[in-house]
Backbone:
């Protein structure tokens, strides 16, 4: 089974949604994790809510890459919007790919969370399939 790490700054929304979607939909081929360079310390409740709307229950926890230092990854996907914020750099193993999504927490509008969830659900599985 391949491992993927979704990396962003706060690890409260986008990377958490990507982790949950991959584990729920591609769990037979991929094991997903997420982390943030400056962890927020929580998973945004609206991220959990919009995941539940599509049948995915995600507990998750906001953490730094240091918490995953003993794991090896096949792919590391940075998901921060490079135009709006500094995207972290991964110095560990694994092919690094950037796939940018806007941060829904900046508006706190539930429809923004849904839009980002839908974009992640569309783009991330397709990306991982291309990388297999």
Residues:
């Amino acid at each position: 089974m391949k491992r993927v790490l979704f990396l962003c700054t706060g690890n409260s929304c986008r990377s958490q949604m990507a982790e949950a979607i991959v584990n729920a939909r591609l769990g037979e081929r991929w094991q997903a994790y997420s982390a943030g360079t400056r962890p927020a310390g929580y998973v945004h409740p609206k991220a959990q809510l919009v995941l539940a709307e599509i049948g995915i229950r995600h507990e998750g926890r906001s953490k730094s890459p240091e918490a995953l230092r003993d794991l090896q990854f096949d792919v590391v996907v940075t998901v921060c919007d490079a135009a709006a914020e500094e995207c972290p750099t991964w110095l560990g193993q694994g092919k690094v790919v950037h796939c940018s999504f806007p941060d829904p927490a900046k508006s706190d509008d539930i429809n923004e969370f849904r839009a980002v969830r839908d974009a992640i659900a569309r783009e991330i599985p397709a990306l991982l399939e291309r990388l297999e």
Q: What stands out?
A: Helices lie at 14-25, 45-53, 110-131.
